[in-house]
Write a structure and sequence with these properties.
alpha/beta, Rossmann fold, eight-stranded mixed sheet, transferase, Glyco_trans_4-like_N, Glycosyltransferase family 4 protein, glycosyltransferase activity
Length: 424
Amino acid sequence: MNDDAPGSRADLPAVSAGRPLNILIITQWFEPEPSAKGLAFAKALRDQGHSVEVLTGFPNYPGGKLYPGYRLKPVRVDTIDDIRVVRAPLYPSHDSSALRRIFNYASFAASALIVGMLCTKRPDVIYIYHLPATTGVAGALMSKLRGAPFVFDVQDLWPDTLRATGMMQNRHALALVERVCQFVYRRAARIVAVSAGIRDTLVSRGVPAEKIDVIYNWCDEQAIHEGTSAPAPAIMANRFNIVFAGTMGKAQALEAVLQAAKRVGAIHPEIQFVFIGSGVELEKLKSLKHQLELDNVVFVPRVRSQEIGAFLKAADALLVHLRDDPLFEITIPSKIQAYLAVGRPILLAVKGDAAAIIADGQCGVVAQPEDPADIAAAACKLYTMGEASRQTLAANAGKHYLQHFSLAIGARRSMDSLIKAVRD
């Protein structure tokens, strides 16, 4: 794209914060892949009067296979809703192998640096989404070479996440990752933290508090609301449905929820747990269901984002569960935003920041993670409290999303961070 092309600086209106900016978003995941900072985010920044370009990989997440219509090549340039998307090659993988996942992340980082330098226009500021030790390093080097400051988005803490999920246990490797992360944090002009707990932890590790902005994630609002008009799935008929939608991996520790379902079934057999999605633990969970002889647990294969809204809207309650690990006390699972946006009561079994959101919004019931008895008690509480009380929780959830988590609010705050990065 040259400076005379549509969408260039000359065609952009003046904005109150100053001249229009050329913004480069670097993210390993982008449309058609699910991503918290995907196409909707890019368009929201553009709609504030700026030029936006995206540097990303070839779509393969979450299945680890290239999406139909894509094949690996040195570079591919797409235009999606007038957003220029430059794709760099990578090693497609997203399974339980730590080595293959490392190749996936590292291959994108290496190729993104080369492709970004050769095939993207010079940015005024760079927004780097996620993975500090790989994408963050590539972005930091590009920032140096292109003379543009960058904002780094911390979705979760490395190496803490690697340790907690079991992806990496070698202490020397973890120490190396920590040093790399500190390099990225030092180089960043601004840092976006998605929870107050992450901000506080970064400050405790020497990152200046004044350059950190807490900006919550949002959900795919369009897809969620498009799906809510669809009829309720047949498998949910005539039951009180508690729905979990998303990845079923080690971090979710859903064995405890199946143990809770066993307890619930003995008291209220009309309560059904519905698990929608995929993940490395799915087959183990199906085996456990068989071992426990659970007839109140249903597994549904992963559905398109445009279809998930029907399941969420038909749910009587929506479930969030993570392992009982200190890392997850400062984590806000991305499904919380989708659950809030669709306006349903939430059963949350996570400590810390996530629990505070549910309590502050008065939009659900909080249980102890990995505690089958407490999770079962919370499920029974939601069932027995009655429809009127659940409707109050549901209304509170929708209101809480609009006030604190919407795309409009998040994009505006993100733009403020980008402008501060340029001015500083």
